[in-house]
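Honest question from a wet-lab person: if I give you the sequences of every part of a complex, can you actually get the arrangement of the whole thing, not just the pieces? Trying it with mine:
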Amino acid sequence: MSRNLTAPRLRRMTARGQDEVDRIVDAWQRERPDLDVAPLHVLSRISRVARRLDQTRGTAFARHDVEGWEFDVLSALRRAGTPYELSPGALVQQTLVTSGTMTNRVDRLENRGLVRRRPAPNDRRGVLVELTDEGRDLVDAVMADLLAREQELLSHLPTRDRERLAVGLRTLLGELEG
Amino acid sequence: MSRNLTAPRLRRMTARGQDEVDRIVDAWQRERPDLDVAPLHVLSRISRVARRLDQTRGTAFARHDVEGWEFDVLSALRRAGTPYELSPGALVQQTLVTSGTMTNRVDRLENRGLVRRRPAPNDRRGVLVELTDEGRDLVDAVMADLLAREQELLSHLPTRDRERLAVGLRTLLGELEG
DNA sequence: GGGATTTATCTTGATATCAAGATACTGCTG
DNA sequence: CAGCAGTATCTTGATATCAAGATAAATCCC
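Yes, you can. This is the full assembly:
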Protein backbone atom coordinates (compact mmCIF):
# COMPACT_ATOMS: atom_id res chain seq x y z
CA MET A 1 0.00 0.00 0.00
CA SER A 2 1.56 3.32 -1.10
CA ARG A 3 1.80 5.67 1.82
CA ASN A 4 1.12 9.42 1.28
CA LEU A 5 4.14 9.78 -0.94
CA THR A 6 2.82 12.91 -2.56
CA ALA A 7 1.78 14.71 0.58
CA PRO A 8 5.10 16.40 1.42
CA ARG A 9 5.47 17.98 -2.00
CA LEU A 10 1.90 19.19 -1.97
CA ARG A 11 2.46 20.74 1.38
CA ARG A 12 5.52 22.61 0.22
CA MET A 13 3.77 24.01 -2.82
CA THR A 14 1.04 25.54 -0.74
CA ALA A 15 3.06 27.02 2.05
CA ARG A 16 1.48 30.44 1.44
CA GLY A 17 -1.84 29.48 3.01
CA GLN A 18 -4.12 26.67 4.07
CA ASP A 19 -7.70 26.36 3.07
CA GLU A 20 -10.44 24.44 4.84
CA VAL A 21 -9.65 21.27 2.91
CA ASP A 22 -6.00 21.38 3.97
CA ARG A 23 -7.15 21.43 7.56
CA ILE A 24 -9.51 18.53 6.93
CA VAL A 25 -6.85 16.46 5.21
CA ASP A 26 -4.28 17.21 7.90
CA ALA A 27 -6.75 16.12 10.53
CA TRP A 28 -7.35 12.83 8.75
CA GLN A 29 -3.65 12.28 8.34
CA ARG A 30 -3.14 12.78 12.05
CA GLU A 31 -6.00 10.45 12.96
CA ARG A 32 -5.27 7.77 10.38
CA PRO A 33 -1.53 7.82 9.64
CA ASP A 34 -1.95 4.33 8.21
CA LEU A 35 -4.03 5.58 5.27
CA ASP A 36 -2.97 7.55 2.21
CA VAL A 37 -5.33 10.47 2.37
CA ALA A 38 -3.78 12.38 -0.53
CA PRO A 39 -6.75 11.80 -2.88
CA LEU A 40 -8.80 14.07 -0.66
CA HIS A 41 -6.70 17.02 -1.73
CA VAL A 42 -8.25 16.77 -5.15
CA LEU A 43 -11.59 15.09 -4.67
CA SER A 44 -12.84 16.64 -1.45
CA ARG A 45 -11.77 19.99 -2.77
CA ILE A 46 -13.84 19.48 -5.89
CA SER A 47 -16.92 18.72 -3.81
CA ARG A 48 -16.36 21.68 -1.60
CA VAL A 49 -15.70 24.11 -4.42
CA ALA A 50 -18.80 22.86 -6.22
CA ARG A 51 -20.88 23.41 -3.14
CA ARG A 52 -19.67 26.97 -2.72
CA LEU A 53 -20.08 27.62 -6.40
CA ASP A 54 -23.71 26.57 -6.18
CA GLN A 55 -24.28 28.95 -3.33
CA THR A 56 -22.57 31.79 -5.19
CA ARG A 57 -24.46 31.18 -8.39
CA GLY A 58 -27.64 31.15 -6.37
CA THR A 59 -27.24 34.81 -5.52
CA ALA A 60 -26.60 35.67 -9.17
CA PHE A 61 -29.72 33.79 -10.20
CA ALA A 62 -31.81 35.41 -7.49
CA ARG A 63 -31.40 38.81 -9.07
CA HIS A 64 -33.13 37.48 -12.19
CA ASP A 65 -35.74 35.66 -10.13
CA VAL A 66 -34.57 32.28 -11.38
CA GLU A 67 -33.65 29.12 -9.49
CA GLY A 68 -30.59 27.07 -10.32
CA TRP A 69 -32.67 24.13 -11.52
CA GLU A 70 -34.65 26.41 -13.82
CA PHE A 71 -31.50 27.74 -15.37
CA ASP A 72 -30.18 24.22 -15.91
CA VAL A 73 -33.16 23.30 -18.04
CA LEU A 74 -33.53 26.58 -19.90
CA SER A 75 -29.84 26.61 -20.66
CA ALA A 76 -29.89 23.12 -22.18
CA LEU A 77 -32.70 24.22 -24.47
CA ARG A 78 -31.00 27.48 -25.36
CA ARG A 79 -27.71 25.99 -26.40
CA ALA A 80 -29.45 23.37 -28.52
CA GLY A 81 -30.04 26.21 -30.99
CA THR A 82 -33.10 26.92 -33.11
CA PRO A 83 -35.83 25.84 -32.72
CA TYR A 84 -34.81 25.51 -29.06
CA GLU A 85 -36.52 22.24 -28.39
CA LEU A 86 -35.49 18.90 -26.87
CA SER A 87 -37.24 15.79 -25.63
CA PRO A 88 -37.58 15.32 -21.87
CA GLY A 89 -35.27 12.35 -22.21
CA ALA A 90 -32.54 14.48 -23.74
CA LEU A 91 -32.98 17.02 -20.95
CA VAL A 92 -32.64 14.26 -18.38
CA GLN A 93 -29.32 13.17 -19.88
CA GLN A 94 -27.89 16.64 -19.95
CA THR A 95 -28.93 17.72 -16.48
CA LEU A 96 -28.14 14.48 -14.59
CA VAL A 97 -31.50 14.28 -12.87
CA THR A 98 -34.12 11.53 -12.98
CA SER A 99 -37.12 11.46 -15.29
CA GLY A 100 -39.53 12.18 -12.46
CA THR A 101 -37.60 15.27 -11.53
CA MET A 102 -37.62 16.45 -15.12
CA THR A 103 -41.37 16.02 -15.48
CA ASN A 104 -41.80 18.13 -12.41
CA ARG A 105 -39.35 20.79 -13.61
CA VAL A 106 -40.98 21.08 -17.02
CA ASP A 107 -44.39 21.39 -15.36
CA ARG A 108 -43.25 24.31 -13.29
CA LEU A 109 -41.42 26.01 -16.13
CA GLU A 110 -44.52 25.63 -18.27
CA ASN A 111 -46.59 27.27 -15.55
CA ARG A 112 -44.20 30.19 -15.55
CA GLY A 113 -44.53 30.47 -19.33
CA LEU A 114 -40.83 29.85 -19.93
CA VAL A 115 -41.25 26.62 -21.91
CA ARG A 116 -44.06 24.90 -23.78
CA ARG A 117 -44.77 21.21 -24.43
CA ARG A 118 -45.85 19.91 -27.80
CA PRO A 119 -46.43 16.38 -29.15
CA ALA A 120 -43.43 14.80 -30.85
CA PRO A 121 -43.89 14.13 -34.57
CA ASN A 122 -43.75 10.44 -35.55
CA ASP A 123 -43.90 9.14 -32.00
CA ARG A 124 -47.11 9.42 -30.11
CA ARG A 125 -45.39 8.49 -26.85
CA GLY A 126 -43.14 11.47 -27.10
CA VAL A 127 -43.17 15.13 -26.22
CA LEU A 128 -40.93 18.02 -27.17
CA VAL A 129 -40.13 20.80 -24.74
CA GLU A 130 -39.55 24.13 -26.38
CA LEU A 131 -38.32 27.48 -25.10
CA THR A 132 -40.76 30.37 -25.31
CA ASP A 133 -39.53 33.82 -26.35
CA GLU A 134 -39.77 34.87 -22.75
CA GLY A 135 -37.72 31.87 -21.70
CA ARG A 136 -35.09 32.65 -24.25
CA ASP A 137 -34.75 36.27 -23.21
CA LEU A 138 -34.46 35.24 -19.61
CA VAL A 139 -31.80 32.60 -20.11
CA ASP A 140 -29.77 34.93 -22.30
CA ALA A 141 -29.77 37.63 -19.67
CA VAL A 142 -28.88 35.22 -16.88
CA MET A 143 -26.09 33.62 -18.88
CA ALA A 144 -24.41 36.95 -19.62
CA ASP A 145 -24.57 37.87 -15.96
CA LEU A 146 -23.34 34.48 -14.80
CA LEU A 147 -20.35 34.55 -17.14
CA ALA A 148 -19.37 37.99 -15.97
CA ARG A 149 -19.29 36.78 -12.38
CA GLU A 150 -17.43 33.61 -13.22
CA GLN A 151 -14.93 35.61 -15.20
CA GLU A 152 -14.29 37.64 -12.11
CA LEU A 153 -14.02 34.58 -9.92
CA LEU A 154 -11.28 33.22 -12.18
CA SER A 155 -9.53 36.52 -12.64
CA HIS A 156 -6.88 35.79 -10.03
CA LEU A 157 -5.99 32.52 -11.66
CA PRO A 158 -3.39 32.84 -14.44
CA THR A 159 -4.52 31.63 -17.86
CA ARG A 160 -2.05 28.77 -17.77
CA ASP A 161 -3.47 27.54 -14.47
CA ARG A 162 -7.00 27.66 -15.81
CA GLU A 163 -6.02 25.50 -18.73
CA ARG A 164 -4.35 22.97 -16.49
CA LEU A 165 -7.36 22.92 -14.25
CA ALA A 166 -9.66 22.30 -17.22
CA VAL A 167 -7.43 19.55 -18.56
CA GLY A 168 -7.17 17.73 -15.24
CA LEU A 169 -10.88 17.95 -14.66
CA ARG A 170 -11.57 16.70 -18.15
CA THR A 171 -9.50 13.60 -17.44
CA LEU A 172 -11.43 12.97 -14.26
CA LEU A 173 -14.76 13.49 -15.92
CA GLY A 174 -13.76 11.05 -18.64
CA GLU A 175 -13.00 8.53 -15.92
CA LEU A 176 -16.34 9.12 -14.24
CA GLU A 177 -18.52 9.19 -17.33
CA GLY A 178 -16.68 6.69 -19.46
CA MET B 1 -14.72 42.90 -23.13
CA SER B 2 -12.12 40.16 -23.61
CA ARG B 3 -13.31 37.71 -26.22
CA ASN B 4 -12.59 33.99 -25.75
CA LEU B 5 -8.87 34.52 -26.10
CA THR B 6 -8.02 31.33 -24.29
CA ALA B 7 -10.39 29.05 -26.15
CA PRO B 8 -8.17 28.12 -29.11
CA ARG B 9 -5.31 26.96 -26.94
CA LEU B 10 -7.60 24.97 -24.72
CA ARG B 11 -9.07 23.31 -27.75
CA ARG B 12 -5.66 22.35 -29.07
CA MET B 13 -4.56 20.84 -25.77
CA THR B 14 -7.50 18.53 -25.67
CA ALA B 15 -7.52 17.26 -29.20
CA ARG B 16 -7.44 13.67 -27.97
CA GLY B 17 -11.05 13.66 -26.90
CA GLN B 18 -14.04 15.76 -25.99
CA ASP B 19 -16.04 15.32 -22.85
CA GLU B 20 -19.62 16.34 -22.23
CA VAL B 21 -18.56 19.77 -21.02
CA ASP B 22 -16.61 20.44 -24.21
CA ARG B 23 -19.77 19.78 -26.15
CA ILE B 24 -21.75 22.08 -23.89
CA VAL B 25 -19.22 24.87 -24.14
CA ASP B 26 -18.93 24.51 -27.92
CA ALA B 27 -22.69 24.73 -28.21
CA TRP B 28 -22.76 27.92 -26.17
CA GLN B 29 -19.94 29.39 -28.23
CA ARG B 30 -21.88 28.68 -31.40
CA GLU B 31 -25.08 30.17 -30.01
CA ARG B 32 -23.54 33.18 -28.30
CA PRO B 33 -20.35 34.10 -30.19
CA ASP B 34 -20.56 37.51 -28.54
CA LEU B 35 -19.84 36.08 -25.07
CA ASP B 36 -16.61 34.71 -23.64
CA VAL B 37 -17.70 31.30 -22.47
CA ALA B 38 -14.23 30.10 -21.47
CA PRO B 39 -14.97 30.17 -17.72
CA LEU B 40 -17.34 27.28 -18.25
CA HIS B 41 -14.42 25.03 -19.09
CA VAL B 42 -13.36 25.23 -15.49
CA LEU B 43 -16.47 26.00 -13.51
CA SER B 44 -19.10 23.90 -15.25
CA ARG B 45 -16.68 21.05 -15.27
CA ILE B 46 -16.25 21.33 -11.52
CA SER B 47 -20.00 21.13 -11.00
CA ARG B 48 -20.33 18.19 -13.29
CA VAL B 49 -17.42 16.27 -11.85
CA ALA B 50 -18.77 16.90 -8.36
CA ARG B 51 -22.15 15.58 -9.37
CA ARG B 52 -20.69 12.40 -10.80
CA LEU B 53 -18.42 12.01 -7.83
CA ASP B 54 -21.44 12.12 -5.53
CA GLN B 55 -23.12 9.42 -7.52
CA THR B 56 -20.00 7.26 -7.51
CA ARG B 57 -19.41 7.68 -3.80
CA GLY B 58 -23.04 6.76 -3.25
CA THR B 59 -22.42 3.26 -4.48
CA ALA B 60 -19.36 2.89 -2.24
CA PHE B 61 -21.39 4.05 0.75
CA ALA B 62 -24.27 1.75 -0.07
CA ARG B 63 -22.14 -1.31 0.55
CA HIS B 64 -21.66 -0.15 4.13
CA ASP B 65 -25.32 0.81 4.46
CA VAL B 66 -24.46 4.48 4.94
CA GLU B 67 -25.81 7.57 3.21
CA GLY B 68 -23.56 10.36 2.03
CA TRP B 69 -24.98 12.81 4.55
CA GLU B 70 -24.34 10.35 7.35
CA PHE B 71 -20.74 9.95 6.35
CA ASP B 72 -20.29 13.72 6.22
CA VAL B 73 -21.25 14.08 9.85
CA LEU B 74 -19.51 10.99 11.17
CA SER B 75 -16.37 11.92 9.35
CA ALA B 76 -16.25 15.41 10.84
CA LEU B 77 -16.50 13.87 14.30
CA ARG B 78 -13.93 11.21 13.55
CA ARG B 79 -11.24 13.53 12.31
CA ALA B 80 -11.74 15.84 15.28
CA GLY B 81 -9.85 13.18 17.25
CA THR B 82 -10.48 11.94 20.79
CA PRO B 83 -12.95 12.30 22.40
CA TYR B 84 -14.70 12.51 19.01
CA GLU B 85 -17.14 15.21 19.90
CA LEU B 86 -18.19 18.54 18.40
CA SER B 87 -20.99 21.03 18.90
CA PRO B 88 -23.82 21.04 16.35
CA GLY B 89 -22.64 24.52 15.35
CA ALA B 90 -19.17 23.25 14.53
CA LEU B 91 -20.71 20.44 12.49
CA VAL B 92 -22.81 22.97 10.59
CA GLN B 93 -19.72 24.94 9.65
CA GLN B 94 -17.81 21.94 8.45
CA THR B 95 -20.57 20.35 6.43
CA LEU B 96 -22.02 23.49 4.80
CA VAL B 97 -25.60 22.72 5.72
CA THR B 98 -28.07 24.76 7.78
CA SER B 99 -28.72 24.32 11.47
CA GLY B 100 -32.13 22.81 10.84
CA THR B 101 -30.62 20.19 8.61
CA MET B 102 -28.01 19.37 11.21
CA THR B 103 -30.57 18.92 13.97
CA ASN B 104 -32.37 16.49 11.74
CA ARG B 105 -29.20 14.62 10.82
CA VAL B 106 -28.06 14.25 14.41
CA ASP B 107 -31.53 12.99 15.36
CA ARG B 108 -31.35 10.25 12.78
CA LEU B 109 -27.78 9.31 13.57
CA GLU B 110 -28.69 9.13 17.23
CA ASN B 111 -31.57 6.80 16.40
CA ARG B 112 -29.16 4.54 14.56
CA GLY B 113 -26.86 4.55 17.58
CA LEU B 114 -23.96 6.08 15.68
CA VAL B 115 -23.75 9.27 17.73
CA ARG B 116 -24.93 10.44 21.14
CA ARG B 117 -25.90 13.89 22.43
CA ARG B 118 -24.77 15.19 25.79
CA PRO B 119 -25.12 18.59 27.49
CA ALA B 120 -22.21 20.96 26.95
CA PRO B 121 -20.25 21.83 30.08
CA ASN B 122 -20.31 25.54 31.01
CA ASP B 123 -23.05 26.44 28.54
CA ARG B 124 -26.54 25.29 29.26
CA ARG B 125 -27.71 26.28 25.78
CA GLY B 126 -25.25 23.92 24.23
CA VAL B 127 -24.99 20.30 23.28
CA LEU B 128 -22.08 18.12 22.27
CA VAL B 129 -22.45 15.41 19.66
CA GLU B 130 -20.18 12.48 20.21
CA LEU B 131 -19.35 9.43 18.14
CA THR B 132 -20.27 6.07 19.65
CA ASP B 133 -17.89 3.13 19.30
CA GLU B 134 -20.15 1.73 16.64
CA GLY B 135 -20.09 5.04 14.78
CA ARG B 136 -16.35 5.14 14.92
CA ASP B 137 -15.91 1.63 13.59
CA LEU B 138 -18.31 2.38 10.77
CA VAL B 139 -16.69 5.61 9.67
CA ASP B 140 -13.24 4.04 9.78
CA ALA B 141 -14.32 1.19 7.53
CA VAL B 142 -16.08 3.49 5.08
CA MET B 143 -13.16 5.88 4.91
CA ALA B 144 -10.66 3.15 4.06
CA ASP B 145 -12.93 1.88 1.33
CA LEU B 146 -13.62 5.34 -0.02
CA LEU B 147 -9.95 6.22 -0.21
CA ALA B 148 -9.16 3.02 -2.06
CA ARG B 149 -11.74 3.89 -4.70
CA GLU B 150 -10.61 7.47 -4.99
CA GLN B 151 -7.05 6.33 -5.31
CA GLU B 152 -8.12 4.24 -8.25
CA LEU B 153 -10.08 7.06 -9.78
CA LEU B 154 -6.98 9.23 -9.72
CA SER B 155 -4.63 6.51 -10.84
CA HIS B 156 -4.61 7.63 -14.46
CA LEU B 157 -3.68 11.16 -13.51
CA PRO B 158 0.07 11.71 -13.11
CA THR B 159 1.19 12.91 -9.71
CA ARG B 160 2.21 16.25 -11.12
CA ASP B 161 -1.25 16.82 -12.57
CA ARG B 162 -2.87 15.96 -9.27
CA GLU B 163 -0.77 18.55 -7.53
CA ARG B 164 -1.66 21.20 -10.05
CA LEU B 165 -5.29 20.34 -9.77
CA ALA B 166 -5.15 20.63 -6.00
CA VAL B 167 -3.34 23.96 -6.19
CA GLY B 168 -5.77 25.48 -8.68
CA LEU B 169 -8.75 24.31 -6.72
CA ARG B 170 -7.28 25.68 -3.53
CA THR B 171 -7.00 29.10 -5.12
CA LEU B 172 -10.61 28.96 -6.21
CA LEU B 173 -11.78 27.81 -2.82
CA GLY B 174 -9.89 30.66 -1.21
CA GLU B 175 -11.72 33.02 -3.54
CA LEU B 176 -15.07 31.49 -2.67
CA GLU B 177 -14.60 31.19 1.07
CA GLY B 178 -12.51 34.24 1.77
C1' DG C 1 -26.62 43.91 38.38
C1' DG C 2 -30.26 44.56 34.78
C1' DG C 3 -31.78 45.24 30.09
C1' DA C 4 -30.39 44.70 25.27
C1' DT C 5 -27.86 42.01 22.06
C1' DT C 6 -25.81 37.91 20.47
C1' DT C 7 -25.25 32.99 20.34
C1' DA C 8 -26.82 28.06 20.09
C1' DT C 9 -30.09 24.87 19.02
C1' DC C 10 -34.42 23.24 17.61
C1' DT C 11 -39.18 23.55 15.28
C1' DT C 12 -42.19 24.34 11.45
C1' DG C 13 -43.88 24.49 6.82
C1' DA C 14 -42.86 24.46 2.06
C1' DT C 15 -40.28 22.44 -1.63
C1' DA C 16 -37.25 19.68 -4.76
C1' DT C 17 -35.51 15.35 -5.30
C1' DC C 18 -35.38 10.38 -6.04
C1' DA C 19 -36.72 5.36 -6.69
C1' DA C 20 -39.97 2.54 -8.26
C1' DG C 21 -43.68 1.59 -10.83
C1' DA C 22 -47.68 2.75 -14.12
C1' DT C 23 -49.07 3.78 -18.72
C1' DA C 24 -48.85 4.02 -23.49
C1' DC C 25 -46.69 3.47 -27.72
C1' DT C 26 -43.02 1.55 -30.95
C1' DG C 27 -40.73 -1.79 -33.48
C1' DC C 28 -38.47 -6.21 -33.65
C1' DT C 29 -38.89 -11.33 -34.33
C1' DG C 30 -40.54 -15.29 -35.72
C1' DC D 1 -49.12 -9.89 -38.18
C1' DA D 2 -49.26 -11.12 -33.29
C1' DG D 3 -46.86 -11.04 -29.30
C1' DC D 4 -43.26 -9.11 -26.56
C1' DA D 5 -39.30 -6.62 -25.25
C1' DG D 6 -37.85 -1.95 -25.28
C1' DT D 7 -38.58 3.08 -25.02
C1' DA D 8 -40.60 7.58 -23.43
C1' DT D 9 -42.97 9.96 -20.18
C1' DC D 10 -45.50 10.65 -16.12
C1' DT D 11 -47.28 9.44 -11.28
C1' DT D 12 -46.76 8.31 -6.51
C1' DG D 13 -44.94 8.18 -1.94
C1' DA D 14 -41.10 8.87 0.97
C1' DT D 15 -37.35 11.76 2.23
C1' DA D 16 -33.76 15.42 2.86
C1' DT D 17 -33.20 20.08 2.52
C1' DC D 18 -33.81 24.97 3.45
C1' DA D 19 -35.56 29.57 5.24
C1' DA D 20 -37.55 31.69 8.83
C1' DG D 21 -38.72 31.99 13.27
C1' DA D 22 -39.11 30.25 18.28
C1' DT D 23 -36.84 29.43 22.56
C1' DA D 24 -33.44 29.68 25.89
C1' DA D 25 -29.08 30.99 27.75
C1' DA D 26 -24.83 33.66 27.75
C1' DT D 27 -22.47 38.03 27.37
C1' DC D 28 -21.96 42.88 26.87
C1' DC D 29 -22.31 47.51 28.53
C1' DC D 30 -23.79 51.16 31.03
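Two things worth pointing out. The beta strands of chain B are 85-86, 115-119, 127-131. Residues 92 and 100 of chain B are 9 Å apart (CA to CA).
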